[in-house]
Write a structure and sequence with these properties.
The protein is of the alpha+beta class. It has a domain of 139 residues. Helix content is 28%, strand content 15%. It is built from four helices and ten strands; from the N terminus they run H-H-H-E-E-E-E-E-H-E-E-E-E-E. The strands form three sheets. Strands 3, 4, 5, 6 and 10 form a five-stranded antiparallel β-sheet that branches. The protein has a three-stranded mixed β-sheet with strand order 7-8-9. Strands 1-2 form a two-stranded antiparallel ribbon. Helix 1 packs across helix 4. The longest helix has 51 residues. The termini are far apart.
Length: 279
Amino acid sequence: MESIEYPNTKPQQGFTLIELSIVLVIIGLIVGGILVGQDLIKGAEIRATVAQVEKYNSAVNTFRTKFNAMPGDIPQAAALNFGLFQLTNAAPLGQGDGNGLIEGGASGSTLAEGETLAFWRHLSDANLVDGQLGSTGNSLIVAATGVVQAAGVTTVAQSLPPSKTTPTEYFLVFSAAGLNYYELMPISGIAAAGTYSYGTTGLTPIQSYNMDIKLDDGMPGTGIVVARGVAAVNAAPSVNNGSLNNTCTNGTGVASDTYNRVATTGGNDPSCAVRFRFN
């Protein structure tokens, strides 16, 4: 007798609403944990970069106390007596002239030449910063005549300390209007003539604000920390005047301007450099 097959009428097992809810909660916790982790990493990077500025200020003050001069600016004879790197080109100004200002081969110059590069070499010679900036093996990155070696510097990290926030950001130094500054900006190379080559990836306005608020007043145009542009050393920052977006600051270029921290209008765009005054 032929058997008869009956359809399977057993109900299919599926997820209950409670089970689905638990899965969604777990997914939400995982996503939230990732986002929180990213925020913690970004915050740690900002704190590390701020700590770099504080460390360099401390190193400069220690150097000045020990050698009675600023690194880079220490007179040539004193540098020789202390066993430090000696700039041997006495002219023009800005070659170890002892005037207290860090100058790039000439009075007030911001070039990567003379004191602006010897500054990091002297701090390295005095074991006040990590690494050995300004030299690599037997090949001097800072030449005794005050300029970089003829081929220029393509490995910028041999001459300038990199930021803890963005690997393509480097600290450089210069003087303006009688004051000394660090500036954090994208540098891709240093030519033999002492000119910097600039990258296109600066700090975001949000990163810049977070550095500013930790050391100063959180305003891009006032205080010891101010916003700068990424096209040249100590250049004015890009400003949103009401018709432009994706700029470093909002306002009209006055002291009351604010950092452009709105993500949808460029808060996360790499449009800023930051200048820190020595203290």
